[in-house]
């Protein structure tokens, strides 16, 4: 299969639709990004990366970071993490608070914001926010084989300044006694984690552990056990796009995780890791063109898991 041709063809077919969807505006710094950006990177077991468009330009990975935070929180706490966060789709938007009161501060899954705040809290564990951020950065730099990976301070500040919804979620969680650390410490890590700037190429390369049983097949670095990576993939498939997860599974058919920066990370078990980026979003915060690109690649390769 000529994967470079498939990636380029997909980019060319969709190029006229660049700018479709609505870039996130509730984080003011994200509204400054050129809406016509469009990149694709597909990384394989053999260490090849097939790219098209703006695949080497860094963007704000936002909620895609929740996948890394989950893997790292599981590493620190093991299955005990599941006492604090569930594993079911929520059927509600990513920043919804309604289930949290009824379900006594146990978020439905680690990808909605409330669940991710708990996951980040457990990743911080007994460390200072600075130590946790330092650890996150060094892990990602190692996995992405790139020392330049960092978070964007402007985006983190912008999100904190307008972060009333996440503060509400976090204080609500704290009131139920669900956080180990002070709310503002947890949020300061969460905002920086969401503000990680990575390119499609860096994202695809650093997440190869997902489709390949927890170990990067190129570097041999182990991120998690095979059963844990299978479970993270399962959660991505069922919860990775919030109230749009069914539609994404229907159209694309592989585990994926969206971010309001317009990136989507897709894990094709046993085959590849694919990252796409286009800032315009649908109503659930999934990149519109990104989802179309992944749907087209899944069709051309026959890689749907179904
Ligand atoms: O917490 C937030 O609202 C953002 N930092 C992340 C939300 C997000 O990316 C939703 N995903 N599509």
From TrEMBL:
<feature type="binding site">
    <location>
        <position position="190"/>
    </location>
    <ligand>
        <name>substrate</name>
    </ligand>
</feature>
<keyword id="KW-0007">Acetylation</keyword>
<dbReference type="InterPro" id="IPR012338">
    <property type="entry name" value="Beta-lactam/transpept-like"/>
</dbReference>
<dbReference type="Pfam" id="PF04960">
    <property type="entry name" value="Glutaminase"/>
</dbReference>
<dbReference type="GO" id="GO:0004359">
    <property type="term" value="F:glutaminase activity"/>
</dbReference>
<feature type="binding site">
    <location>
        <position position="63"/>
    </location>
    <ligand>
        <name>substrate</name>
    </ligand>
</feature>
<dbReference type="InterPro" id="IPR015868">
    <property type="entry name" value="Glutaminase"/>
</dbReference>
<comment type="subunit">
    <text>Homotetramer.</text>
</comment>
<comment type="similarity">
    <text>Belongs to the glutaminase family.</text>
</comment>
<protein>
    <recommendedName>
        <fullName>Glutaminase</fullName>
        <ecNumber>3.5.1.2</ecNumber>
    </recommendedName>
</protein>
<feature type="binding site">
    <location>
        <position position="159"/>
    </location>
    <ligand>
        <name>substrate</name>
    </ligand>
</feature>
<feature type="binding site">
    <location>
        <position position="260"/>
    </location>
    <ligand>
        <name>substrate</name>
    </ligand>
</feature>
<feature type="binding site">
    <location>
        <position position="242"/>
    </location>
    <ligand>
        <name>substrate</name>
    </ligand>
</feature>
<feature type="binding site">
    <location>
        <position position="113"/>
    </location>
    <ligand>
        <name>substrate</name>
    </ligand>
</feature>
<feature type="binding site">
    <location>
        <position position="166"/>
    </location>
    <ligand>
        <name>substrate</name>
    </ligand>
</feature>
<keyword id="KW-0378">Hydrolase</keyword>
